[in-house]
Design goal:
Blueprint: E1 2-8, E2 23-28, H1 36-46, E3 56-58, E4 64-66, E5 84-89, H2 100-117, E6 124-126, H3 127-135, H4 149-162, E7 165-170
Parallel strand pairs: 1-4, 1-7, 2-5, 2-6, 3-5
Antiparallel strand pairs: 3-4
The structure holds zinc ion.
């Protein structure tokens, strides 16, 4: 069985062909609203980056938006940017609680990435977890203290177990 996910393109920024994904890192935007275009403007104009730092953004309605190309190193998790895909869910989950409207597409996207890169669901981690591994203690709460990371990874592992092929279609 095949499940097709719709993503809103195009990709932003250059193709540097320098990213080899082994992990999927989950972020929140730490803003109450926004989308890939507003983050792209912020990251380019305020931070001086080539494009939005994330590879994917999931907006408040659950739309999957394309950011950087997967083959381009990200700018989302120091020390992990050449070997991961960064997915950002819009919201500030220290204060809000993400709903299935965003979590289901996030889990489906993560499943697609796991399948394409041969990554297990154990390698779908939070930004906070990547910081723990790097620095010994978390520097941020990202993706937020209310974010149900275990629930998200359980959805991914269930998807993987069922053997459904997840495909991405760009509109
Ligand atoms: Zn983050």
């Amino acid at each position: 069985m095949i499940k097709t996910l719709t993503t809103v393109g195009p990709n932003l920024g250059p193709d540097w062909n320098n990213n080899q994904p082994e992990h999927i890192i989950i972020h929140h935007s730490a803003t109450f609203n926004g989308d890939v275009n507003s983050f792209d403007r912020y990251h380019r104009l305020q931070k001086g980056w080539v494009a939005v730092g994330y590879h994917y953004v999931i907006d408040k309605k659950g739309n999957i938006q394309l950011g950087r190309m997967e083959t381009t190193s990200g700018a989302h998790s120091v020390g992990w940017n050449n070997n991961s895909i960064g997915i950002c869910l819009v919201g500030h989950f220290d204060y809000e609680i993400p709903t299935d409207e965003q979590l289901i597409p996030a889990s489906s996207l993560a499943t697609n990435l796991c399948q394409r890169y041969g990554i297990t669901s154990l390698r779908v981690i939070s930004h906070k977890q990547s910081n723990i591994k790097r620095c010994g203690k978390p520097l941020k709460t990202c993706p937020g203290n209310n974010f149900p990371m275990n629930y998200l990874t359980s959805l991914v592992s269930k998807n993987m177990y069922k053997g459904i092929i997840y495909q991405l279609e760009v509109i």
